[in-house]
Amino acid sequence: MREAREAFGRIFEVPAGYLNTASVGVPTTATADAVAVALDAWRHGTGRATDFDGVVAAARAAFGTLVGVPAGRVAVGGSVSPLVGLVAAAVPDGARVAVPVGEFSSVSYPFAVQGRGITVTEVPPAELADADADWIAVSVVQSLDGRIADLDGLRAARGRGTRVLLDVTQAAGWLPLALDWADAVVGACYKWLFAPRGAAWMAVHPDLDLVPHAANWYAAADPWGSTTGLPPVLPDEARRLDASPAWYCHVGAADSLGWLAGLDLTAVHRHCGGLADRVRDGLGIAPTGSAIVHVDRPDAAERLTAAGLAVTARGGGARMSFALYNSDDDADRALKALL
What we know:
This protein is of the alpha/beta class. The protein is about 30% helix and about 15% strand. Strands 3-9-8-7-6-4-5 form a seven-stranded mixed beta sheet, with helices on both faces. Strands 10-12-11 form a three-stranded antiparallel beta sheet, covered by helices on one side.
């Protein structure tokens, strides 16, 4: 049953037992209302294209805050893999790329299809930071099981000369992040960032030189003055890599990410990771602090679903994910269904 839940100063109309944020996050009522207003203007022909410049800029800046970089280092995209593709295209011929075993394909595939003598090797997660590689590409939090990457080890690897790409799609919004040291940080909007799917961002280190393969009018120094004609005049910042934004997704993103960027993310992490660890403790699994729990039992997803909980069947078991709107009751219902 859908109910109104207050969390961190906002209201969510989310079903009890919704433990599926790692698939799709549920927006706050304020975010959903902001999108509805924009859609109503579209429906009645009162909206204008220039109306969206401010929300795109606001969402860009908020993503930068969430990962610890200034807005000038953030590029706008529609999803993660095309942004990763810009990085993969810049990897030199013959480069060695390391990814953890089980990495989400939107991170690994863009490197794996390059050819040009580039090799992509799957490495046990615990050994990733010490991999003999030119590049490491990894999710900060793994989609399958919630494993949190060894960020200190990865930062040390970059200090030794290995370049690092991080995907924060399953981490941004609940895990405090300070990733200004990484070469590229990509993330999509629709998990713990609670925005409509269709927006993504990439923070680019000043040392990383990328070709804007999808150069377009929106990536120009003066977008509205660059809809026709040559030559392209692009800005000297990450915005030169922008794709033309999905407007209504950025309306939601500006509202949601702006709110999240102002929260105490240490408290958010304590809440989300604490609920997940409550379940781990009840199941005899060591605590990790991750908001994602994977239960490696063939009947887990069936039992949880039968108990009215929204989860995802993954990896021969069940994946549960805890967000700001979840409660002790959600965790206890999951434990009751599995014990």
